[in-house]
Amino acid sequence: MPAGGHPVARNASFARLTPQHVEHFRKLLGHEVNSVTYATDPDDMNLLPYNVDWIKKYRGQSQLVLKPSTTAQVSQVLAYCHAENLAVVPQGGNTGLVGGSVPVFDEIVLSTGRLNAIRHFDDVSGIVVAEAGVVLESLDNYVGERGFMCPLDLGAKGSCHIGGNVATNAGGLRVLRYGSLHGSVLGLEVVLADGTVVDMLRTLRKDNTGYDLKQLFIGSEGSLGVITAVSLLTPPRLPSTQVGIFAVSTFEDVQRLFIAARRHVGEILSAFEFWDRTSQQLVETQLPTAGTPHLFDAPFYVLLETQGSDADMDREKLERFIERAMDEQKPLVENGAIAQDQTQARAFWETRENISDAATTAGACYKYDISMPVPVLYDLVNDAKAHLKQKGLYDSAQPDQDPVRFITGYGHLGDGNLHLNVVARDFTPEVTQAIEPWVYEWTQRHQGSVSAEHGVGFMKPKYVSYSKDEHSIRIMHGIKAMLDPKGIMNPYKVLQ
Ligand code: FAD
Ligand code: MLT
Ligand code: ZN
Q1: Which of 174, 308, 328, 398 could form a disulfide with 268 if both were Cys (CB 3.0 to 4.6 A apart)?
Q2: Predicted complex: ipTM over 0.85
Q3: Fold of the domain spanning 240-351
């Protein structure tokens, strides 16, 4: 059984890597430094970062990492893998949270780390064409210097690649304002399993020439081909950003605050994030040197951001909104602060963005990424606590020995997206079986999705049916079989 969990067997139709294969890849790419990393021991220090995922839950056994630097090289690599029946895992920044980016067995890792050119920028429309391996933060800086911003932002921006973002259809912190990548991505260049290069790299906002094939690859998690370049519509970077953090007493008040925010600052609202007390405590205790501000104690916190064109007006508007929220007969907000400058605004954001790392630092972090109707969003956290307590794993008379140490909830409230994190002492079958499929059954009962934004990866193929009907899954299998008939692209992931 592979490290990280699910009992799958290695697909015997895949070839084992031989010295001849490695020799061939060296001929294809080897004249470039670091383009081929090979070792007989998958635990070799040079391979480990590619074999182990971000949360250290999944661990593969690959002996070979390839880093092509051009689309033509990706095509040659895949054509050869296809001919030789060698399985491949595309990997970007390896920040994925569902075990999709690392091998399960001995699949070859195809890293996009060297596909990192920005090919084109149109400063009238803000459309940028970038290769898949460009780090999101670098792309944002690039368009930022030209007066634009990436519509996508997430805590992993310093490591994740734009190709990985598109492959996971990553959501992040500003979907509320700028929508999902299904809207912002205008075109893709993709290499299919047999090496065919499909050029869909359009830079048009309108193009109704039949089926919109690029959409198939947005969120395909490496299962249909390798994305080598992305054409992305970036919005103007507005001169005024205001950020506030607010203490809220109940989850009902968090919702009331959201409704009020949409009504009173809706036209400039760019993010509405929430987290609970445990999340805040985790950030403060696990990452004490991260420099995030110590906040007032509260059951819930909301980070609200506005982006607009007039700093004085936007600030006044936000202040008036907060005063009103505090003055209500039943105040929506107990306490709060609006950032005085960009440094403080950044520190507020870091508090929110550090929750993920804090939870991972605290122990073995089981991450559930659920979308559902907002009114029931936090019920899942309360029900998970009750469920795991009833199983004797959490909140017992001897908490020092409980297998589960923390249960937290945070996320993108504006998108109806909860991150339930169950932090255990270790990843064990006992804890896994207590949470799964319970958490997915709960989600299904509440008409939610078992993956809001992180994807399916290796973690959830057997739970996709909790959110998709049998015909949809049959069509997905059909598409996979058509584009990757030998199943060499990211096997054991997404579909089972
Ligand atoms: P990887 O992790 O390398 O790969 C992810 C998947 O995409 C894998 O299945 C891989 O095979 C495939 N893939 C990668 N590159 C390609 C390619 N070029 N072609 C085809 N397939 C490819 N996600 C959110 O949605 N919202 C968030 O707010 C968010 N915040 C995060 C915060 C932190 C601290 C971390 C660690 C992760 C976060 N994530 C979030 C998870 C998110 O999926 C990733 O951060 C990001 O989108 C993945 O990009 P990557 O380059 O690291 O891809
Ligand atoms: C987030 O919103 O912080 C990310 O999706 C990462 C996570 O869920 O931990
Ligand atoms: Zn998220």
Answers
A1: 308
A2: yes
A3: Alpha-Beta Plaits (3.30.70)
Higher pLDDT, 293 or 366: 366
- Out of 53, 54, 136, 355, mutate this one to test ligand 2's pocket (max ligand atoms within 8 Å of CB): namely 355
> Percentages helix, strand, coil for the chain, rounded to the nearest 5?
35, 20, 45
Among 130, 144, 273, smallest CA distance to 189 is for 130
292: CA distance to ligand 2 center in Å? 17
pLDDT tens, position by position, 410-464: 999 999 999 999 999 999 999 999 999 999 999 999 999 999 999 999 999 999 9
Residue 412 Cα to ligand 3 midpoint, Å, equals 6
CA-CA distance, 2 to 5, in Å (whole number)?
Answer: 6
| Nearest ligand (C-alpha, residue 134) | 1
Residue 419 CA, ligand 2 centroid: distance in Å? 7
Atom of ligand 1 nearest to the CA of 55: 36
Tell me if the bond preceding 437 is cis, omega within 30° of 0: yes
Residue 13 Cα, ligand 3 centroid: separation in angstroms?
A: 37
Q: Is 417's C-beta closer than 6 angstroms to any atom of ligand 2?
A: no
Distance 345 CA to ligand 1 centre (A): 25
- Output the ligand 1 site: residues, CB below 6 A: 54, 89-97, 100-101, 112, 132, 154-156, 160-161, 163-165, 167-168, 170-172, 221-222, 226-227, 356-357, 453-454, 457, 490
Q: Are 487 and 100 in contact (CB under 8 A)?
A: no
For tokens 């584009």, what's the residue?
483
Query: For the whole model, what pTM was predicted?
Result: 0.97
CA 257/CA 260 separation, integer angstroms? 5
Is the beta carbon of 419 within 6 A of some atom in ligand 2?
yes
Residue identifier of the C-alpha nearest atom 14 of ligand 1: 164
Mean pLDDT of the chain: 96
Instruction: Identify the CATH number of the domain defined by range 118-233.
Output: 3.30.465.10
Question: How would you class 369 by CB atoms within 10 Å of its CB: exposed for 0-12, middle for 13-18, buried for 19 or more?
Answer: buried
The domain 363-454: what is its CATH number?
3.30.70.2740
Close Cβ partners of 46 (under 8 Å, ≥ 6 residues apart): 37, 39, 65
Answer whether 31's CB lies under 8 Å from 483's CB: no
Are the folds of 118-233 and 240-351 the same?
Answer: no
- CB-hemisphere CA count at 13 Å for 117? 7
CA–CA separation, 347 vs 236, rounded Å? 23
Residues 415-434: b if buried by 16+ CB within 10 A, e if exposed: bbbbbbbbbbeebeeebeeb
Q: Shortest CA distance to 377 belongs to which of 459, 254, 468?
A: 254
* Residue extents of the structural domains in the chain: 118-233, 240-351, 363-454
